[in-house]
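Example record

One chain of 170 residues, shown exactly as stored in the release files.
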Amino acid sequence: MNLQVKKFLYNPSTILLFLVLACLASFSTAAHDFKVGDIEIQHPWVAPTIASSRVTGVYFTVKNLGKTSDKLIRIEVSDEVADSASLHELREVDGMLRMRPLSNGKQIDPGESVQFEQGGDHGMLVGLKAPLLIGDKFEASLVFEKAGPVNVEFWAERGPASQDTHANHL
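Predicted structure tokens for this chain:
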């Protein structure tokens, strides 16, 4: 390494700059959680679609950090994203998986987390206005009985493995 490069790399100002940039990069990947009052929404994401698909699932985790129960009662998206959004549960009935709307919402007890995930309770977007490609983002509101609306941003990504790594967000 030549002397000028060493002076640059070992300069305290350069080291501080690299540390600040590393902190900002880690903050941007961790900043995909949303909170209102005692309700926290972790890592909202949406499955990408193919061009002809007009339906997709949305997934997230809800944490109730409070001392009283709350209930997620609906999901709302702009008409520019989809015709409608709804919450669903997936249950086994007579050996078959059945999907049905969560018409009474989903209760989240104090200190509990509820996952809306592939193969379980989840959100649905119907009548998509355009395909959702990896990296696409859109805003939505998760509406709670007590906490009210929590505005979130859904990110289109490949699946549950990326929930822990945020690999598709960079």
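Notes: Residues 34-163 form a domain with the Immunoglobulin-like fold (CATH 2.60.40.1890).
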